[in-house]
């Protein structure tokens, strides 16, 4: 037992050391490795350092030299606040801890953060589960919808459905269930919807997208679809028909993540996402049914 604890302790220490090294390395760059966060790589005393402004993006810069900070004096719009009005660090990054809000913090949102408080309401009674469709095809401990204990759940999401363009100008979009290579998705969904026999008050949602959906070649699909009114309308109309075909009660939008350039996001995603949800709500309401809408959001701060 003592040997086992020692091994665990040593492993933990080694892990922490490598974790610290990894964090340190992320602020450095060279002629073959650019900055992980897209910042400028400026050379000083033979060492490449990631940052913004003249010190990093000026004459000594070797890559990403036009990069702009998230916030502050070196941002594309120096007067703009960070999302959610969090602090802007001296180096142009948004966050909520002392390194962002303390000495050198830029802008008006500095110092102690005022965190919002929530009143107790029915939202806290909502219990949502996710079912990963590929779990049914595992060679060890395969897990089918009928294995889910749904008595305590109010909602459950089926992951995932995917979409792709039906034409070259991205104004028409179609849906299909994710293939796991083992099971027939249609049969799996029928079993999933059948969970309402065990819990008649259960709401069964289809989750659209997912992490791997944001990988090439589909990385731009969300942004391209949401960018036009025709694209949003087609998405909403065809999604409703897809949900009605299988008997889903609502949709969970899993866009990972709008605006995030490292995941294929674009600047206009923020506004277009609102327009997309508005189009969905209108399409659902016009159907005469009370379909639900949820969406996944990043919690960076």
Automatic annotation (TrEMBL):
<dbReference type="GO" id="GO:0000272">
    <property type="term" value="P:polysaccharide catabolic process"/>
</dbReference>
<feature type="domain" description="Chitin-binding type-1">
    <location>
        <begin position="68"/>
        <end position="112"/>
    </location>
</feature>
<dbReference type="Pfam" id="PF00187">
    <property type="entry name" value="Chitin_bind_1"/>
</dbReference>
<dbReference type="InterPro" id="IPR050314">
    <property type="entry name" value="Glycosyl_Hydrlase_18"/>
</dbReference>
<keyword id="KW-1015">Disulfide bond</keyword>
<dbReference type="InterPro" id="IPR018371">
    <property type="entry name" value="Chitin-binding_1_CS"/>
</dbReference>
<keyword id="KW-0378">Hydrolase</keyword>
<keyword id="KW-0119">Carbohydrate metabolism</keyword>
<keyword id="KW-0146">Chitin degradation</keyword>
<protein>
    <recommendedName>
        <fullName>chitinase</fullName>
        <ecNumber>3.2.1.14</ecNumber>
    </recommendedName>
</protein>
<dbReference type="GO" id="GO:0006032">
    <property type="term" value="P:chitin catabolic process"/>
</dbReference>
<dbReference type="InterPro" id="IPR017853">
    <property type="entry name" value="GH"/>
</dbReference>
<keyword id="KW-0843">Virulence</keyword>
<dbReference type="GO" id="GO:0008061">
    <property type="term" value="F:chitin binding"/>
</dbReference>
<feature type="disulfide bond">
    <location>
        <begin position="87"/>
        <end position="101"/>
    </location>
</feature>
<keyword id="KW-0147">Chitin-binding</keyword>
<dbReference type="GO" id="GO:0008843">
    <property type="term" value="F:endochitinase activity"/>
</dbReference>
<feature type="disulfide bond">
    <location>
        <begin position="82"/>
        <end position="94"/>
    </location>
</feature>
<keyword id="KW-0326">Glycosidase</keyword>
<feature type="signal peptide">
    <location>
        <begin position="1"/>
        <end position="24"/>
    </location>
</feature>
<dbReference type="InterPro" id="IPR011583">
    <property type="entry name" value="Chitinase_II/V-like_cat"/>
</dbReference>
<dbReference type="InterPro" id="IPR001223">
    <property type="entry name" value="Glyco_hydro18_cat"/>
</dbReference>
<dbReference type="InterPro" id="IPR036861">
    <property type="entry name" value="Endochitinase-like_sf"/>
</dbReference>
<comment type="similarity">
    <text>Belongs to the glycosyl hydrolase 18 family.</text>
</comment>
<keyword id="KW-0732">Signal</keyword>
<feature type="domain" description="GH18">
    <location>
        <begin position="125"/>
        <end position="301"/>
    </location>
</feature>
<dbReference type="InterPro" id="IPR001579">
    <property type="entry name" value="Glyco_hydro_18_chit_AS"/>
</dbReference>
<dbReference type="Pfam" id="PF00704">
    <property type="entry name" value="Glyco_hydro_18"/>
</dbReference>
<keyword id="KW-0624">Polysaccharide degradation</keyword>
<dbReference type="InterPro" id="IPR001002">
    <property type="entry name" value="Chitin-bd_1"/>
</dbReference>
């Amino acid at each position: 037992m003592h040997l086992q604890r020692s091994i665990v302790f040593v492993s933990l220490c080694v892990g922490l050391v490598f974790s610290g090294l990894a964090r340190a390395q992320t602020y450095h760059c060279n002629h073959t490795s650019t900055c992980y966060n897209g910042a400028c790589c400026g050379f000083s005393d033979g060492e490449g350092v990631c940052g913004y402004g003249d010190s990093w993006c000026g004459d000594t810069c070797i890559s990403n030299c036009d990069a702009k900070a998230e916030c502050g004096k070196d941002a594309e719009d120096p007067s703009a606040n960070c999302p959610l009005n969090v602090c802007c660090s001296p180096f142009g990054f948004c966050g909520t801890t002392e390194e962002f809000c303390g000495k050198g913090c830029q802008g008006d949102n500095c110092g102690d953060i005022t965190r919002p408080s929530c009143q107790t309401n029915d939202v806290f009674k909502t219990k949502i589960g996710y079912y990963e469709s590929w779990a049914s095809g595992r060679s060890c401990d395969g897990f089918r919808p009928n294995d889910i204990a749904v008595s305590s759940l109010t909602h459950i999401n089926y992951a995932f459905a995917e979409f792709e363009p039906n034409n070259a100008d991205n104004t028409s979009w179609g849906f299909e269930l994710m293939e796991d290579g083992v099971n027939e998705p249609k049969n799996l969904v029928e079993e999933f919807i059948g969970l309402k026999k065990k819990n008649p008050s259960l709401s069964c949602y289809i989750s659209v997208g997912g992490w791997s959906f944001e990988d090439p070649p589909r990385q731009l699909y969300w942004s391209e679809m949401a960018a036009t009114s025709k694209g949003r309308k087609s998405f909403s109309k065809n999604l409703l028909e897809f949900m009605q075909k299988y008997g889903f009660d609502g949709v969970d939008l899993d866009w990972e993540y709008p605006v995030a350039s490292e995941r294929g996001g674009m600047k206009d995603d923020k506004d277009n996402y609102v327009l997309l949800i508005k189009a969905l709500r209108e399409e659902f309401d016009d159907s005469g049914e009370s379909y639900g809408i949820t969406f996944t959001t990043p919690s960076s701060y």
